Amino acid sequence: MGVYDGVYPGPNDIIITGRSFEERPETSRMLESKGIKNRVFYNPLPFANKTRVSSGKHKANILLALRSKYDVGIHFEDDPWQMDEIHSLIPQQIVVLLQHNLVEKGNIRHAY
Predict the structure, then answer these.
(1) What b/e sequence results for 56-92 when a residue is b if at least 16 CB atoms lie within 10 Å of its CB, and e otherwise?
(2) Within a 10 A sphere around the Cβ of 27, how many other Cβ atoms?
(3) How far from chain centre, in Å, is Cα 6?
(4) Residue 84: CA atoms inside 13 Å, Cβ hemisphere, count?
(5) pLDDT on residue 2
């Protein structure tokens, strides 16, 4: 069995992450190492203040803003708490839950 490192976005996909803007350097390094050059929206909350729930609200707010300009079809989410927050603010948004244990959920710093 090989190494699995997640789902890759298409060339026109936008990444909405719950990771704080303070996590941008390590997240950018990780994405760059995988050849991912997509636009990324980071959580505006400081790392110490964000939660899984606030990250879901952040994602919903970005989706709402994008929906005013673009045809946002599917949002892929790997955190059921965040999916619930998205649905609480945008019930009609299609969200596909990706169930995995590749990264730990919660307020965890990642070293890349």
Answers:
(1) bbbbbbbbeeeeeeeebeebebbbebbbebbeeebee
(2) 19
(3) 12
(4) 6
(5) 52
Q: Is the dihedral of CA 94, 15, 84, 7 positive or negative?
A: positive
Mean pLDDT score of the chain: 90
Where does residue 7 rank: exposed (0-12), middle (13-18), buried (19+ CB within 10 A)? Answer: exposed
- pTM for this model (two decimals): 0.85
Token code pair at residue 26 = 């390590």
d(CA 42, CA 39): 10
d(CA 60, CA 16) in angstroms, rounded, equals 9
Give the per-residue pLDDT at 7.
83
Low-confidence ranges of the chain (pLDDT < 50): 1
Q: Which residue has the tokens 């070293």?
A: 111
